[in-house]
Amino acid sequence: LDLRALVCVRLTSSDGDRYVSATLCRRIRILIAPYFMRYWDFVREMRFTGAVIGEQMALNVLYPDVYTPSSMTIFLPNRLFFHMLGYLCQVEGYTAALSNRAGDAGSLQLRTRTATLSRGTKRIELLQSTSDSALHAVLGGWNTALSAYITPSGFCDPYAMLTAAKRALLDPRLLSTGAPLKQEIRDLREEWRSRDWSIGVHPSQWDVVRGACVPEPRSDCAASTRHFGDKHCVAGHLFPVRCRPPLVGHIALDLVEEYTVCWWRGGRVCGIGC
Fold this sequence. Notes:
Layout: H1 3-10, H2 14-32, H3 39-49, E1 52-54, H4 55-62, E2 72-76, H5 81-90, E3 95-102, E4 111-119, E5 122-128, H6 134-138, E6 149-150, E7 154-157, H7 160-164, E8 167-169, H8 183-193, E9 198-200, E10 226-227, E11 234-237, E12 262-263
Parallel strand pairs: 2-5, 8-9
Antiparallel strand pairs: 1-2, 1-6, 3-4, 4-5, 6-7, 7-11, 10-12
Helix pairs in contact: 1-2, 2-4, 3-5
């Protein structure tokens, strides 16, 4: 079952809630645990640093029929990037290669650090956000499908209707200058198309009679103001309601939930009035 089907099952009963939790947690363990000798220590490190797992590894957890990547991408807040980097090198024995990356004009990630970590056949990519929220960096992907993520306690896909149909919209910033797409992006687009994905620049590619958004913008409209966890997202908690620990005395700080990250895609709207 893909993400939308699992969410529907979760709504049926407490048994459905437990089934969905067990399914997602099992997928995460199968795909992610092989990267770590001390898996639960890594989970605690994720909680401490406010890290999220994104890109194709998150997609593969939420949509099992999606291609299983050969590496994992972890996004981190600006100030805790080196904490995770040090942990993976000192505790997990990874070797790191650091680099600085300058984004194009108008991009979300104007200047950031990245690290490629390797240990045997395993490879992890660390991406530093330019803000105190790792989710800011998640939005830097070249298409909408890459904005899905998972945390130690939850998951979110802002464009689940598109992703479930293996459709993705190109980031309009890549086309804003009028210049041809970079070769790197063209190669990625062809790679995804070879896996039966449809990559478009506007939703009308799949809905030829699409008109203006009335009374409010659709989730994939250029004029729609979005935030992680809004009504268009398919998101939820990894654990069933009955198994979540009670809140006693205080609520533990969650660095992912501490900030509300908003965005709008921009580009061509669906019609006059959007």
